[in-house]
## 1
Amino acid sequence: GLPENLPIIAAGGDKQCETLGSGCFKHGQAVISYGTLATIAVTSKKYVQNKNFTYYTWPSSIRGAWNPEFNIYRGYWLVTWFCRQYAKEKDFPDLINEMNEKAKDIPPGSNGLFVYPFWTPHPALYPLAKGAILGCTDYHNKEHLYKAILEGIAYALKDGLHLIEKDTNQKIKELYVVGGGSKSDVAMQLTADIFNMPAKRLQTHEVCAIGAAINAGMAINMFLNEEEAVKNMTKVSKVFYPIKGNVQVYDDIFNN
């Protein structure tokens, strides 16, 4: 059904297209994808390899580059798991909206509730890990658990970022956040606080298609380079800045 002579372009993997579509192609930039599989990735002009496969290095959608990527297999799948405990399928959006509103009033650290997010073990980093919810008291309710899940995922990705920073010899200073989870103000703010850097939300949270479109545009000479394409197709809609008091709390939790 495709028209004759229509160019067919191989764009790259989904997360690699997300990295390009987010505008993460310079030294010191990283992109978090809060999807079913949660990832943090950078673009590197130099090939790096983790011998234990703690993270994977994929061919980038950007010419002459690579994408080191650390992932949590059960990322925002845990939000779906949470919803299944408290709502029917049709009520998921209503429950998430309610949780995002109530979680705004919960302090960093979720009043001592901690979620270890490895419902599926990480084969290299934590091969024997199992998910855990720690610190429960009669004070906690579902919004505490919701926020603790988001915090636990961000802690785990920060763990992976440290490994990538060391191997690629770069310090990340600029963070883009994409995927369905980026629609949550609570998720965006705690990400800025846990990583202690501005977290940028893009106008379009599903940037995989944008990255693929950029690859197609490059192939038919629509753009001079990736930078021009990103400038024309990707916009930052809001930046969340770290809150000093929250950063101190999260640093204490992460380091201990």
Note: The radius of gyration is 19 Å.
## 2
Amino acid sequence: MMNWENIFSSKRFGMENYHDDKKHARTEYQRDYDRLIFSSPFRRLQNKTQVFPLPGSIFVHNRLTHSLEVASVGRSIGDIVGLALRDKYPDALAHFEEIGAIVAAACLAHDMGNPPFGHSGEKAISTFFSEGKGKELEEQVLKEGGRWTDFTCFEGNANVIRLLMNQFYGKRKGGFAMTYSTLASIVKYPFSSTIAGGKNKFGFFASEEEDYASIADELGIMRVSDNPLKFARYPLVYLVEAADDICYQVMDIEDAHKLHLITTEKTFELLLSFFDEAKRERRIKNMNMLTDVNEQIAYLRASVIGLLVNECSDVFINNEEEILAGTFKGALIDNISITLYDAYKSCSKFAYDNIYFSKDVLDIELAGYRIIGFLLEIFTNAILKPEHAYSKLLLERMPKQYKPQSNDLYTRLQSIVDFVSGMTDVYALDLYRKITGMGLPSI
């Protein structure tokens, strides 16, 4: 069973020899948050699609605004849980007061490993290796001892851990040098791709497996199995997951309304369904004090989020022992009260049926498949035939930090996936146009 007094560690990955217990004005976890906010990969999220195409005249969420909102909600859940745990264990040495800061930092980072073009980006990378030209390389990768499922089940969550922990060329040891607790809070699926069952759900690539295992052992996270490696979930992962679940579902409904994919009446119906009769009447009364429809919807959205924050916090506290024992099943959102759960599922079903397959969303996904597949193909060919003149030009086009310098194919393919997955929608489209000759730089 995991123990709260071992769960927290401000050690920084890659900088363990410089660790000290000095008190600073900002805690190490607050520094994690600041380090992420000022980083280039985080800023690039502003040009990565969340669900809907990047905004024109109507502003909808991108990955950056989504991540900021998830961090805000995550901090609220973490603070509530931290206070409750301190009341329950007043003499414990555990840093309960830091839970909000740790969860907020992990929430900021949770989408940093996602490729361009929304949810289709992961699938486009996976299918290039499972169905496309990349499949031809499977035998060689396996022969050299590489893990092929890291490519065919490419997962943005595992890619976050790689982005934060890997020492890319020219970078310092430890990558972002994040604290152990923040890194562990990001790993939603704490097992390798070999037991992902063909799904895009696993927590770390083979290249980061050993390092994550050392962090997990330091934090006292239980090992479920050694081969293949699988751990119990780090407790704070549940809070990060809950913040993400709350935000994307509720905010997608609001965005869909702004884009006229859902009527005002249906939006009101979905959001008001979270409240019992008395609370619903109160919300309608308060909502009618506003005359702007978008403000009315924003009020209801904020009310729903507040309700779900409290519910998910209660579920965590009420199931704390099962969470520490690694026996808790499902996500926090799956265990909220039946009325709220039904309302949440109604929003999910409506979004799936009417939003995620809308023409604009599908157009972005189709373009993403084409662009990502093309870029993976030409750069993969370049690392396979680096002596060719065209390959040399392409490899010169890659930033130095991604330069494929290893002899084994697994690592060289990873460098190409690192490069492509790190692109913004705009950069990927621009590079595609230039390479294909559809767009040339100004002369």
Note: The longest strand covers residues 223-226.
